[in-house]
Amino acid sequence: MLELSDKICWGVATIGVAAAQITSATTPLISGILLVADPNNSGRIAVGGAGVTLDTVAATDGMELNAGDAMAIPVSDASLLYAIASAASQRLAFFYI
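The structure corresponding to this sequence follows.
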């Protein structure tokens, strides 16, 4: 992960077909997190909490990002977010304060 200061951070996570944390580091956030799916991704990414799914069960399916989509989430800690993709090796950029 690259750091501009001790408060502004960004990086890129590689998301696969099994749900995993976007970042495992416990990171308290001041202003939430911005997620951007790489415009060259071939698949979709679903974002949610632990146990997030994609096209499986409405109760656990996450918010979907197609290639090039972005979403801001007012979450208190980056490690609370998980993602799963419809294809292996999808890239998800993140920026948080």
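The two ends are 13 Å apart (CA to CA).
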